[in-house]
Amino acid sequence: MEILSQYGLFLAKIATVVVAIAVVAAFIVNLTQRKKQRGELKVTNLSEHYKALQEEMGAALLDAPQQKLWHKEQKKKLKQEVKAAKASAKKGIAAGDKSRVWVLDFKGSMDAHEVNALREEVTAVLAVVKPQDQVVLRLESPGGVVHGYGLAASQLQRLRDKQVPLTIAVDKVAASGGYMMACVGNKIVCAPFAIIGSIGVVAQIPNFNRFLKGKDIDIELHTAGQYKRTLTLLGENTEEGRQKFREDLNETHHLFKDFVHSMRPQLDIEQVATGEHWYGSQAKEKGLVDDIGTSDDLLLGLMKDHEVLNVRYLQRKKLLDRVTGSAAESADRLLMRWWQRGQKPMM
Predict the structure, then answer these.
(1) Which of 34, 119, 172, 277 is placed for a possible disulfide with 198 were both Cys, Cβ 3.0 to 4.6 Å?
(2) Of 109, 176, 198, 295, which one is the catalytic site residue?
(3) pTM (two decimals)
C-alpha cells in the first residue's frame, strides 16, 4: 500500500512538471504567434531584379566560352561595386540620397480589408520618404463597401497631403470604390482596356416577409428612432422606408461625386458620374485618366533615373483565417465574374 502511495505521489510530481512545461511552452508559442501576427515589411529592389533579369537574358544568348568570360567579368564587377560602396560609406556618402520610387500594391476585395496592409505601407513610406521621391500604386479593384474604400482613399490622401507625388497604375480595373482610390493620385495611368469609372452607388436587399407570412411566421422589429431601420430582410417594408433608403443612396452618391470632383476638378462630374464604366482609351477622352500604358512600362521608364522599390506589408494568418480568407477570395472572384457580365459593384 505504501508503495502504491509513493508511486502515486511520484506520478503527481511528474504530471505537475509536465503541465508546467506545457504552460511555459504555450506561453512562448503565444508570444511568437503574436509577434508573427503583427506582420512584417518586405522591401524588394525592383531595379536590381530587372537589371539581373536583363543580364541573365543577355548571357543566355552567348555561347559557352563567352558565358565563361561573362561570369568572370561579373565577379570582377561585383567586387568593384562592393569596394566603391565601402569607399562611399567611409566618405559619409549615404546610399539613400538617390531618388526613389516606392511601389505599393492594392488588389481590393468587396470588404476592402486590404486597407489594413495599405495603412502600414503608407506609414512606412512616409517615415523615410525624401523630397525627391515619389510613390506608384498598382491598383486593381471593382469596388465594394463604402466605408472600406473611403478609408483606403484616405490612406492615399496622406501621401498627397505630405506633397509626395502619387501615380496610380491600373492594368485591369479601378471602378466605383476602386476609382475613388485612383482619383486621389496626382496622375492616373491605365492599360487600354482597363475598366475605369462606375461612379455610382448600388444596394440590394432580399425580403422574405411574404414567404414567412405564408408559413404563419410573424416577425417583430422594434426600433428607437424613426429611421433606425429603413429596409429589412424579414419584416414588412414600407414605402416611407424605401424612400428614405433611396435618399440615403443618393446622398452617398452626392458625397462620392464631390470627392472625385475635388480630386480632379477638370472633370465634367455630371457627365461621368452616371454609374457607367469605360475602357482605358475612352476614359482618357473623358478625363478620368491621364495616360494610357501598363504598369510594367511605367516602372521600366522610371528605373532609368530612379531606384524602384516595392513595399509590402505581410501578416501571418492563423489557420482559421487562411480557410475563411480562401472562401472570401472565392466569393470575390465569383462576384467579379457577375460584375463583368453586367452587374455593378456596391461602390
Answers:
(1) 277
(2) 176
(3) 0.75
